[in-house]
């Protein structure tokens, strides 16, 4: 909010709302009612009202309420060879992956992307199945669906856990909860109001493009008016890695000429290409 705005600050608004009467003895319902009244009168903005509602609802929620459902979990088959698993991970927008045997109900641990990259430097390790690499397979943590998320957050912070596997009453995998999932229960929707969603493809005035590495390859083809003829690769990051035929370093400067375009990598994070500047090549320098 601008300094010269007509509304007082967020905390001053709260004080003006709760300064009436004996606020120490107010119930949750009374506070929520006053917050809603404050919003109607213009004392609280919509995002501020939502924050207060989220704080009260937060303490009542369980892991099963906020988890990523089992059908949407991105996991690695423990029988995959390391080199194949790494190629699969490159096309995903995650750094940690549950590892399972036979099916998602039998999770045997999790694999960190950086561990896979490091192990993949050894040609002998590349041909081994993930389940045969105990040195990079980290233990997974399991919790019941009924675990209170407030208590869970404290546990995850204390034990430095980035995600936990949620199991149902029959011991089957129900879903997955990350630290971000819990925090977003309070601030996620409010952040979305202020943080403009970054577009995958941005056309510049000179008709070149800034394209995110996670952009679906078919969207890149449509924007550039070309066909790369790749059916197995899903993202621009995966496509450029396949041409490069190796994992790039975070500080590496990479330029690839392909299909009449120059792909200049602008940033790499955790071995994953984040942004690429794409420009049309002069006809004399076009390469296939």
Task: Give structural notes.
With 288 residues, this protein is of the alpha+beta class. It has 3 domains: 10-58, no CATH class; 64-192, Roll (CBS-domain); 201-285, Uridine Diphospho-n-acetylenolpyruvylglucosamine Reductase, domain 3, CATH 3.30.465. It is built from 11 helices and 13 strands. The protein has helices spanning 10-18, 28-40, 46-58, 63-66, 82-90, 113-119, 123-126, 149-159, 179-194, 217-224, 236-244, and strands at 68-69, 76-77, 96-100, 107-112, 137-138, 142-144, 163-167, 173-178, 201-203, 209-212, 255-258, 261-269, 272-280. Strand 9 (201-203) and strand 10 form a beta hairpin. The chain is flat, with a radius of gyration of 24 Å.
Concise overview:
It contains eleven helices and 13 strands.
**How many helical elements?**
11
Q: Main β-sheet: number of strands, strand sense, barrel status?
A: 5 strands, antiparallel
Q: Work out the oligomeric state of the chains in this entry.
A: single chain
> Judging from the principal axes of the Cα atoms, what is the shape?
flat
- The CATH class name of the largest domain reads Alpha Beta
Q: Which architecture of the largest domain does the CATH hierarchy give at level 2?
A: Roll
Low-confidence stretches: 1-8, 189-196
Structural class designation = alpha+beta
Spell out the helices and strands N to C: HHHHEEHEEHHEEHEEHEEHHEEE
| N/C terminus separation | 52 Å
Helix content: 25-40%
- The overall pLDDT, averaged over residues, is 82
Give me the CATH fold name of the largest domain: CBS-domain
**Count of discrete domains:** 3
């Amino acid at each position: 909010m601008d300094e010269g705005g007509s509304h007082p600050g967020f905390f001053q608004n709260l004080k003006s709302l709760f300064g009436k009467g004996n606020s120490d003895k107010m119930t949750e319902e009374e506070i929520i009612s006053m917050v809603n009244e404050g919003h109607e009168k213009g004392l609280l903005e919509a995002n501020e009202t939502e924050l207060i509602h989220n704080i009260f609802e937060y303490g009542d929620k369980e892991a099963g309420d906020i988890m990523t459902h089992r059908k949407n979990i991105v996991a690695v088959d423990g029988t995959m060879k390391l080199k194949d698993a790494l190629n699969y991970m490159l096309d995903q927008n995650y750094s940690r992956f549950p590892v399972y045997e036979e099916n998602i109900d039998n999770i045997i641990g999790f694999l960190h992307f950086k561990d896979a990259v490091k192990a993949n430097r050894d040609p002998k390790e590349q041909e081994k199945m993930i389940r045969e690499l105990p040195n990079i397979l980290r233990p997974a943590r399991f919790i019941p669906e009924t675990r209170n998320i407030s208590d869970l957050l404290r546990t995850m912070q204390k034990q430095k856990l980035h995600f936990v596997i949620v199991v149902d009453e029959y011991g089957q995998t129900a879903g997955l909860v990350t630290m971000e999932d819990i925090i977003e229960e309070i601030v996620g929707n409010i952040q979305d109001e202020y943080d403009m969603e970054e577009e995958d493809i941005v056309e510049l005035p000179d008709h070149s493009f800034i394209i995110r590495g996670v952009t679906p390859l078919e969207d890149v083809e449509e924007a550039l008016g070309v066909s790369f003829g790749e059916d197995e690769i899903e993202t621009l990051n995966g496509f450029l890695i396949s041409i490069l035929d190796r994992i790039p370093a975070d500080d590496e400067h990479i330029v690839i000429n392909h299909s009449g375009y120059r792909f200049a990598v602008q940033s790499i994070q955790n071995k994953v290409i984040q942004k690429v500047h794409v420009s049309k090549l002069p006809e004399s320098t076009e390469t296939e």
